[in-house]
Write a structure and sequence with these properties.
110 residues, alpha/beta, 3 helices
Length: 110
């Protein structure tokens, strides 16, 4: 099996984090998937719209995540809303692409 997995729990490392992304279906139900290992668990939450991210972030806090990351579709306003919602309890950030990625993103989302 590739890659080889060695599980070593280390208390000073992040052990649980969350990722929020848009489903691309405003009528869809929220989707929650947990992946990872005993050493580091990732909770992925798919939401129907950017506006649903605040509730998802609050749920992730209740799950005990130590960090929240948003997909790039949330843009600055969505990130600001999530940061406000978590009120500094955990770091919150977002994935953003540089200008060189614009042609590929345009192909995907136009």
């Amino acid at each position: 099996v590739w890659p080889p997995v060695t599980v070593t729990a280390v208390e000073d490392r992040m052990q649980k984090w969350g990722f929020i992304y848009t489903l691309g279906d405003r009528e869809g139900a929220i989707r929650r998937d947990v992946i990872g290992s005993a050493a580091c668990e990732l909770i992925c939450v798919g939401v129907p719209s950017v506006e649903d991210a605040v509730a998802a972030a609050k749920g992730l806090l209740e799950d005990g995540v130590e960090l929240i990351e948003l997909c790039g579709a949330f843009e600055a306003e969505g990130l600001a809303a999530v940061k406000h919602a978590v009120d500094g309890k955990v770091p919150a950030g977002a994935v953003f692409y540089g200008g060189d990625a614009a042609p590929g993103l345009h192909r995907l989302f136009s």
